[in-house]
């Protein structure tokens, strides 16, 4: 494969954009090499500026659940944009979007639109703190909630370890207010709440972890967290920026039957445009300005073109059987990859949720962040490049989930499994 143009663009980009990219994982740092620059994308495929074509399992990191450049989404965008790109006064599409989210996700009695997942999670913890009058936030090792100060906190070894910032620029005075515990550890959560439950404003979790590869909750784990939060008067916040509208139409909360107090969304509800949202219990959401004193605002929030793209995407996925089919395809892909690895005698396993998967170079099961970290990442990196060379684009990190869309058909999946057979053989 020729990557001349991508290479030239990356050289130019590095002069003026930190690391040459506007979001770190795009730089291919963990897998090595240089990123390709996109020229276009259509359906399950992305094409780079040198004309190379890849089956895309990243899907812009989640939004493209119905495939790239879906004609219905593009039509909604073009019909809407001719009326103006932004108004700074309310528009009808914002109301439609709020009604749609509330209908699909019953725990969201009210919603507020923002412009990214990061904004959604920042706002949700502000509401949690404002509404409870408490300051402490609990998060989980390996969970990502955007780049807000309170979330860029690494866990220490012990359950009770207070946060230490893992990014310069995050004041420890703020990071100290975030406690981090291991995901899927029932006792760690119980112990933390027993000790400091009355200080906890909110617990935020990716109900299915998609930012530490892909880790599913153990049976009863989310229910356990729900009960702890209720008992101690803390708010349960489901960060469904990735899982929302994907693992089930109603997200992970629908899949597992848990009602969080607040939820955050992004990715799919923007259909590829920059959008986020948060919502939840009416009594909490009513405390947000201007109906209440908790301030949160946004010049471009509820942008009509973004709402149109999101609503068109929701139209496409809000059809009976959509998520069952997405789940089936995810299984066909993962079963095929596992079989190919087995035939090659390579220690390998997958984790799956509908439309989402994790790949690990180790034997299963993978149930914790420690398990995920024990994957042979050097091997993953070689596999990543071997697949890329065969026209399959996987997430460029051993710690990111992959995504299947509704247009990853039999042909694309078969090509992927063939490419994996050849790549596994090459790994030896
Ligand atoms: C992507 C993601 C975010 C951040 O969203 P941005 O739009 O990138 O700011 C937050 N939480 C989760 C679970 C995510 O996957």
Unreliable residue runs: 155-162
Strand content: 15-25%
Question: Biggest sheet: strands, sense, closure?
Answer: 7 strands, mixed
Query: What is the H/E order?
Result: HEEEHHEHEEEHEHEHEHEEHHHEEHHEEH
CATH topology of the largest domain: Aspartate Aminotransferase, domain 2
Supply the CATH architecture of the largest domain: 3-Layer(aba) Sandwich
Looking across the biggest beta sheet, what order are the strands in? 4-12-11-10-9-5-8
DSSP E strands, number: 16
Subcellular location: Cytoplasm
Pathway: Porphyrin-containing compound metabolism; protoporphyrin-IX biosynthesis; 5-aminolevulinate from L-glutamyl-tRNA(Glu): step 2/2
Pfam family, one: Aminotran_3
Subunit structure: Homodimer.
Description:
Pfam families: Aminotran_3. Belongs to the class-III pyridoxal-phosphate-dependent aminotransferase family. HemL subfamily. It is an enzyme of class 5 (isomerase). Helix content is 38%, strand content 15%. With 428 residues, the chain is an alpha/beta fold. It folds into two domains: 174 residues, Aspartate Aminotransferase, domain 1 (Alpha-Beta Complex); 247 residues, Aspartate Aminotransferase, domain 2 (3-Layer(aba) Sandwich), CATH 3.40.640.10. The strands form four sheets. It has a seven-stranded mixed beta sheet with strand order 4-12-11-10-9-5-8, sandwiched between helices. The chain has a four-stranded mixed beta sheet with strand order 1-2-3-15. Bound molecules: pyridoxal-5'-phosphate (PLP). The site of pyridoxal-5'-phosphate has 15 residues, from helix 4.
């Amino acid at each position: 494969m020729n990557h001349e143009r991508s290479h030239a663009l990356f050289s130019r980009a590095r002069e003026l954009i930190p690391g040459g990219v506007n979001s770190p994982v795009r730089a291919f740092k963990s897998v090595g090499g240089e990123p390709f620059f996109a020229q276009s994308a259509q359906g399950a495929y992305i094409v780079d500026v040198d004309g190379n074509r890849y089956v895309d399992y990243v899907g812009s990191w989640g939004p493209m659940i119905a495939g790239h450049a879906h004609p219905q989404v593009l039509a909604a965008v073009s019909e809407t944009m001719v009326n103006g790109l932004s108004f700074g006064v309310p528009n009808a599409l914002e109301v439609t979007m709020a009604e749609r989210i509330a209908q699909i996700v019953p725990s969201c009695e009210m919603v507020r639109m923002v412009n990214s997942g990061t904004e959604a999670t920042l706002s949700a913890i502000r509401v949690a703190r404002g509404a409870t009058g408490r300051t402490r936030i609990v998060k989980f090792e390996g969970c990502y909630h955007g780049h807000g100060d309170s979330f860029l906190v690494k866990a220490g070894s012990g359950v009770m370890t207070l946060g230490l910032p893992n990014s310069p620029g995050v004041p420890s005075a703020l990071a100290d207010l975030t406690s981090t515990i291991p995901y899927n550890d029932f006792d760690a959560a119980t112990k933390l709440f027993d000790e400091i439950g009355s200080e906890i404003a909110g617990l935020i979790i990716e109900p299915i972890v998609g930012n530490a590869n892909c880790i599913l909750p153990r049976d009863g784990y989310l229910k356990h967290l729900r009960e702890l939060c209720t008992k101690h008067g803390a708010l349960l916040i489901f960060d469904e920026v990735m899982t929302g509208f994907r693992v089930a139409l109603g997200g992970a909360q629908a899949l597992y039957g848990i009602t969080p107090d607040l939820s955050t969304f992004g990715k799919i509800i923007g259909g590829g445009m920059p959008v986020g949202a948060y919502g939840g219990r009416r009594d909490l959401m009513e405390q947000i300005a201007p109906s209440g004193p908790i301030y949160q605002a946004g010049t471009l929030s509820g942008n009509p073109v973004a709402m149109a793209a999101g609503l068109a995407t929701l139209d496409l996925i809000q059809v009976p059987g959509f998520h069952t089919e997405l789940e089936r395809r995810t299984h066909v892909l993962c079963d095929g990859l596992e079989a190919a690895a087995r035939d090659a005698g390579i220690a390998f396993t997958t984790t799956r949720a509908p439309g989402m998967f994790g790949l690990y170079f180790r034997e299963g099961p993978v149930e914790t962040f420690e398990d995920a970290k024990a994957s042979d990442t050097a091997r993953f990196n070689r596999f990543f490049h071997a697949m890329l060379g065969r026209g399959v684009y996987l997430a460029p990190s051993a710690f990111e989930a992959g995504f299947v869309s509704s247009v990853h058909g039999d042909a694309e999946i078969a090509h992927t499994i063939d490419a994996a057979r050849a790549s596994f053989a090459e790994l030896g």
